[in-house]
Amino acid sequence: MTLSPSLRLTDGHSIPQLGLGVYKVPDATAADTVQVALEAGYRHIDTAALYDNESGVGQGIARSGLPRDEVFVTTKVWNDRHGFDETRRAFDESLGKLGLDYVDLYLIHWPAPRQDRYLATWRALEVLRAEGRARSIGVSNFHTHHLDRLLAESALAPVINQVELHPWLQQAALREYDAAHGILTEAWSPLARGRAIGNATLDRIGARHGKSAAQVVIRWHLQLGNVVIPKSVTPVRIRENFDVFDFALDEADLAAIGALDSGERTGKDPDDLD
Ligand SMILES: NC(=O)c1ccc[n+]([C@@H]2O[C@H](COP(=O)([O-])OP(=O)(O)OC[C@H]3O[C@@H](n4cnc5c(N)ncnc54)[C@H](OP(=O)(O)O)[C@@H]3O)[C@@H](O)[C@H]2O)c1
Questions:
Q1: What does the domain layout of the chain look like in residue ranges?
Q2: Residue nearest to atom 31 of ligand 1 (CA)
């Protein structure tokens, strides 16, 4: 079975570069979805307390029979649980729902800057890491000015920044900042929530390689060095999205995709979400 390559995190752990996102996957069917993915070769699942499917995700992992250390599990603390004590409670709840005794990666879901509590939240993540219950810790939706502050005022740096990133929002400056600080960039909504499907440029590139637009975009993320977590509940698409390790985009393909960048978000600007 083909598995995803892994990328090294600055804390010494590794993360499978291609994983499955499960936002909007119902808890009742999440176990089936996760099982399909694990059978297809995925070894990395991205959930969050907000998604309300940590129980189903945990059941899917348990059902697979895979050793715990072969599946990389990410979850996140939601915006209403910022602060040191509250984050620790939220983490315990997530771990309980997942049925695990550690997660591989715990993220601050959004900086929620108006609450001005993400530094206290980060302290809680540092302690969870020291306890070994979160093997790695990182952030999500952090602009460079949020990262500047976190790095200046913390003992530990995040290993990952998970942000909205797709051909219409390529985040070149943020990716450069992350790389300069040893932070991996992880792409959420990597298919721009489906906008990539049916795009003429991506279809044309795909036709040359015998691949779909979705596969072209996932391949583009991999070649940029992003961690990438496309979501699907559709078994044939879950498998399709993983079938991206037998071709490579060339310079002309990369330039054509590069030209799609328009700075358009599908989600909120992190400075505006609390
Ligand atoms: N940190 C954050 O704030 C944040 C925010 C948003 C998302 N995320 C994470 O990122 C993950 C991915 O983002 P996303 O779920 O927003 O969007 P996405 O992965 O860009 O797109 C998912 C959509 O594309 C469809 N799709 C997937 N593969 C396809 C294919 N091969 N052909 C045609 N359609 C396909 C899916 O449909 P079906 O499911 O119906 O097949 C779904 O409607 C999330 O699940 C979550 O884990 C994180």
A1: 6-265
A2: 237
